[in-house]
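Batch 3, record 17
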Amino acid sequence: MRDRAADLLLDWYDRHARDLPWRARPGAPLPDPYHVWLSEVMLQQTTVAAVIPYFEKFTTRWPDVAALAAAPEDEVMAAWAGLGYYSRARNLVKAARELSRSGGFPTTEAELRKLPGLGDYTAAAIAAIAFERRALVVDANVERVIARLFAIEEPLPGAKKAIRAALDTITPERRAGDFAQAMMDLGSSLCRARDAQCLLCPWQAICAAREAGDPVRLPVKAAKKAKPTRAGTAFWIERDGAVWLVQRPGKGMLGGMRALPDDGWSARGDGSGVAPVAGAWRAGGVVRHSFTHFHLEMGLAVHAGAKPVPAGDGEWWPLDRLDEAGLPTLFAKAAALALAER
DNA sequence: TACACGTGGTC
DNA sequence: TGACCAAGTGT
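Prediction for the assembled complex:
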């Protein structure tokens, strides 16, 4: 089974591999480990289409690990703005500095796993793709493909152990990187969550879920909890052609990012409504935004007085350079709303 | 283990 | 249009 399945998949990959900016150029033996690492971190829970422009921006601005290690953290955070899961950017800088200090990338899965931001998936992916180490590379694509190939009925996340064991039986010793990427390409192009193109699949003759007749039913997933809706306020404070921005705490929601001051809304509860400066406020509209685990209705309050002096740390950011502030999408929406009605 | 953690596209 | 989904990690 091992060699048969792997051969079918690798033959398919030789004909249908996607051309992606972080993959090795034709003729090159292996891709740049820096490119593999950067792309894999960006791709965590993030679509290829969303990643490509960020990958190009990062590799142009910081062409290697040493350049990224030397970059000020807040510049990296601002460059990451809009991509989401901002702890990835903070860990990226931390890992770059560790790599720079230690003289480069480790080549084993176990050593890679110690770097901040590298979990089981990413460490295995880099070991396989950048260093041709045999590894069990398990992402959502692989879980889906394996659950179908072996007709694993146990619901996720409980089925993870069985999926790893099944994957182990078909993972070859050779072409580790191609095999891992072929699994993910198969999952994203043919064996998709809501749609399985079995007639085009290299495994159509050996797939247990196809044999059973309803591959899209798998994998079974545990029911998800309902998302609460929270309410909060962000405050637009303007003075002399600049707006007051704060830096959010390093941990938690939008950690370390520049933002408009707000009233402390969170996934756990509504904001207090308390403004960072006294005075007259007028309503500036509402921004609706959905996070992974809650919905937010964030009202925008616009300071209507003259020369306000906010309490606490922050900075006056010139309005004509607001696009360089690196606001996460929620606050970029709020700023666009404020600017549209001025 | 279960939950916190972003965003944009899809149906 | 709201829920699901996408190359997961940290706690």
